Amino acid sequence: MEIQAAVAHGNGQPLMIEAIDLDEPQANEILVRIVATGICGTDLGILSHAPLPWPAVLGHEGAGIVEHVGSAVTGIAPGDHVVLTTTSCGHCATCQQGQPSFCMRFRAVNMSGGRRADGSCTHHQHGKPAFGGFLGQSSFAAYALATERNAIKIDKDLPLDVMAPFGCGIQTGAAAVLNTLKVQAGKSLVVFGAGAVGLSALMVAKIAGCGPLIVVDTKADRLALAMELGATRTINPLEEDAVALLQADGGVDYAVEATGIASVMENAVNALGVNGVAVLVGVAPGQKVAIDPTALQSRGLTVMGTIMAGRDGVPALFVRKLIDFWKEGKLPVEKLIRYYEFSEINEAIAAAKDGSAVKPILRLPMNGEAA
């Protein structure tokens, strides 16, 4: 079928709303009409410097309505409302252990470019393969193909243009705190980076009863938002030495790093008190982080990594738990969101890059055409 998609033709180039041919769903696949999709830092990084085989359709925070399902699909039906997340193989050791976010074939199934096991390709343009299936979806488009493993069914009365970022950014920040760190109430926590991931970590840390809650960022408006969302203290590292200030109080129990900057990762570790734990959430491909092993040994420090639903987290179950928090008013993610029409995708990307929008969300037209 021919669909409209925001197509990338190279690194650093603007996306173009163009026609793409999307294959029909195979037996294990579902066809989703995308209603809304978020823009995430991973999209920005790929667009900036990843050596993809162009053209490509990115986007991985899609939410929409199922239109068709393959013959082997049993848990999802046409008309269901779904939030899309990354996919997993379902067969490797970590998937079998109930940790699909750490799927041992994560790259193979999420970055195949839409190449299926039988050699067919999900996306084409002008009769030639286009890179699709990005992180299990390629949601910068009117329609996306997904599977039961990465489509999370939600109630039909939930606003899809609010639910979309639960598939990645909201989930990732929240899981870093609740699933990977498994925080204890009454313990201190600092978040480095007040983007959508970091602020989600802050909000669930408040839910979990952590305190004091500190947020470190260079943007005054982000720090003000952090205070509104539950921070008890903020630090601008352009004005103050965050590590020195935190160590003056004996260091923190938990640190969440959500910038993807190597030097900030080092600061997160250095801000810890005795027996403190740091979790690295920001994506930093190719960067090297310097950590003093003596500090780890003498202070009993732990450094962890996390992605998506985190340790022992199942995305479908965890996202629904977060949605319950949202329903209760405890996770007001709408305060992070700025909306754009699909045709304004390049403006939305620019706002994400310069930090003027915390979480840009694209709304797609009902008829699948460019607005």
UniProtKB/TrEMBL annotation:
Under the heading Pfam families, the entry gives: ADH_N, ADH_zinc_N
Coiled coil: which residue ranges? none
Query: Which metal ions or organic cofactors does this protein require, according to UniProt?
Result: Zn(2+)
Q: Which UniProt keywords apply?
A: Metal-binding, NAD, Oxidoreductase, Zinc
Quote one Gene Ontology molecular function term: zinc ion binding
Q: What domain of life does the UniProt record list for this protein's source?
A: Bacteria
| Domain Enoyl reductase (ER): from-to ranges | 10-362
Q: InterPro entries this protein is in?
A: ADH-like_C (IPR013149), ADH-like_N (IPR013154), ADH_Zn_CS (IPR002328), ER (IPR020843), GroES-like_sf (IPR011032), NAD(P)-bd_dom_sf (IPR036291)
Can you supply one Gene Ontology CC term for this chain's record? cytosol
Biological process (GO) annotations held by this record are: formaldehyde catabolic process
- What PANTHER family is this protein classified in? ALCOHOL DEHYDROGENASE, ALCOHOL DEHYDROGENASE CLASS-3
Q: Which family does it belong to?
A: Belongs to the zinc-containing alcohol dehydrogenase family.
Any idea what this protein is called?
NAD(P)-dependent alcohol dehydrogenase
Q: Which organism is it from?
A: Sphingobium yanoikuyae (Sphingomonas yanoikuyae)
